[in-house]
Design goal:
Elements: H1 3-15, H2 26-40, H3 48-51, H4 55-67
Helix pairs in contact: 1-2
Length: about 70
């Protein structure tokens, strides 16, 4: 399996697990990555930051929280 296929598979699973904040905890994401690595027999180390860039979502959440807006 190619890295792109692995990322796509992880994204498909993660997109169904999106939380109120728009992202999952890094521990949850790392567990998903590790599960996919075992399933696909990938040996190299893969960290959350290698696949997910959640900086824009976290920044947006901070701005929303600071504004006092609630859904």
């Amino acid at each position: 399996m190619r890295d792109r296929d692995l990322v796509s598979s992880i994204y498909d699973i993660q997109s169904r697990l999106v939380l109120k904040e728009g992202f999952s905890d890094d521990k949850v994401l790392q567990t998903m990555i590790d599960d996919m690595k075992r399933t696909t027999k990938v040996q190299r180390e893969i960290k959350v930051a290698d696949i997910f860039d959640l900086s824009f979502v976290k920044k947006a959440n901070e701005e929303i929280r600071a504004s006092g807006w609630k859904p």
